[in-house]
Amino acid sequence: MRSIPEIDINRLKDIIVQAERPLIITHYNPDGDAIGSSLGFYHYLVKKGKEPIVVAPNDYPEFLHWMPGNDKVIVYKRNCGTVHNALRDADVIFALDFNDPDRTEGLETYLKDAPGKKVLIDHHPDPGDFADLMFSYTYYSSTAELVYHIIESLSDDKLIDSIIAECLYTGIMTDTGSFNYNSSNPFTYYVVSKLIELGVDKDKIYWNIYDNYSADRMRLLGYCMHKKMEVFPEYHTAFISISQDELKEFNFKPGDSEGFVNYPLSIKGIRFTAIFIEKEKHVKISFRSKGKFSTNKFAEKHFNGGGHINASGGNSNESLADTLEKFRNLLPNYKNDLNDSL
Ligand code: 5GP
Ligand code: MN
Questions:
Q1: Of all protein residues, whose CA lies closest to atom 14 belonging to ligand 1?
Q2: Residue having the nearest C-alpha atom to atom 17 of ligand 1
Q3: What are 204's strand-pairing partners?
Q4: With contact defined as beta carbons under 8 Å apart, do 240 and 261 qualify?
Q5: For ligand 1, mutation pick of 288, 312, 316, 323 (most atoms within 8 Å of CB)
Q6: Quick one: CATH architecture of 6-210?
Q7: What is the reported pLDDT for 187?
Q8: What is the predicted pLDDT for the residue at 3?
Q9: I need a surface site. Which of 29, 183, 321, 329 has the fewest CB within 10 A?
Q10: Gap between the Cα atoms of 32 and 311, Å rounded
């Protein structure tokens, strides 16, 4: 286990004690870890006698709405004025599960210029220099796991109840793909065992997240696998693309394509996958890999993105067709890296 420096824990302790108007903010397109860690930390601060505001930059999938405290989350895209004011008025801002203000897409200047103290709690590499106090550790599977460790380091583990535990477990489960990747660290299982001891019903959480899809999503998945997947065995790579028209045809809702990018990794020999989704003004891309191939470096270099080694994302302002062509043309440059990546 990696211990967090006592000096940082003591500073955090003081910040929490003194906080009068704390605010928790997470990243754009929030995932299970973004919402799970934010709400877990929210419930913890409530137990410390605080009334934190929780902000998500935009809407997130319905399969995350069951989480306790979901009704407290203010979605910026639907409440711009409220969030601008809240950021201006907050005396402490906790930034959870992202490493740079630009991951809040639209709130970056408001966040950077906000007068409150900023505390970063995150597990992504290469944090930007915007926080007064940083808990930035790639060692943890998820921000939720890190939040558990921080609360324990604050000697407040007695305050973790089944509600906080549910939120944190959700973050760990989703960021490891149900303990499929990013989950070889024994500490993760120490935290999981503590959370289960506190009454987390892990099967129920799994069902809430993964068995809660619409029929449209399953049909879109089938269509993507059948018609929209390109496989390049010589580069150990496969990708999927979806156009706006196709999204409409399948009544696309946020979250419907969650996890699609992982499926081609199940093909024998495939180690690098991508999904390209045409948005109104850009193409959103997700990358995944098995082994040593650094998708985050690839995303950063070619598609204005970043993330973790095995799971990252990026964007393209070119058309979907041009973006796919660019990706196909890049693959030969990575042939050796991909061959040697396991
Ligand atoms: P997903 O593919 O699930 O949207 O994102 C996987 C991971 O990639 C996220 O945890 C996040 O760290 C990172 N990521 C996704 N999109 C972007 C992006 O546009 N920019 C950066 N820097 N990271 C991204
Ligand atoms: Mn995360």
A1: 313
A2: 313
A3: none
A4: yes
A5: 312
A6: Alpha-Beta Complex (3.90)
A7: 97
A8: 82
A9: 329
A10: 14
Ligand 1 centre to CA of 157 (Å) is 30
Q: Which residues surround ligand 2, an ion (CB under 5 A)?
A: 33, 97, 142-143, 175
Distance 329 CA to ligand 2 centre (A): 30
Q: Ligand 1, from 103, 172, 275: best to mutate by most atoms within 8 Å of Cβ?
A: 103
Cα of 124 vs centre of ligand 1, distance in Å, is 10
Count CB-CB contacts under 10 A for residue 203: 8
**CA distance between the termini of the chain:** 26
Report how far ligand 1's centroid is from the alpha carbon of 308 (Å): 8
Beta bridge partners, 311, equal 288
SS3 (DSSP) at 146: helix
Percentage helix, strand, coil, to 5, in the chain?
A: 50, 15, 35
- The reported pLDDT for the residue numbered 1 is 62
State the 10-residue block means of pLDDT for the chain, 342 residues long: 89 98 98 98 98 98 97 98 98 98 96 98 96 97 98 98 98 96 95 98 98 96 98 98 98 94 98 97 97 97 96 97 98 97 89
| pLDDT of the residue at 297 | 98
Report which ligand 1 atom has the smallest distance to the Cα of 31.
3
Percent of the chain with pLDDT over 90: 98
CB 273, CB 265: distance < 8 Å:
yes
Question: Which ligand has the nearest atom to the CA of 261?
Answer: 1
Ligand nearest to the CA of 299: 1
Ligand positioned closest to the Cα atom of 173: 2
Q: Name the architecture of domain 216-339.
A: Roll (3.10)
Q: What are the start and end residues of each CATH 3.90.1640.10 domain in the chain?
A: 6-210
Q: What is the DSSP letter of 54?
A: E
The token pair at 3 is 């211990």
Domain boundaries for CATH 3.10.310.30 within the chain: 216-339
For ligand 1, what atom is nearest to the CA of residue 175? 10
DSSP code, position 97: S
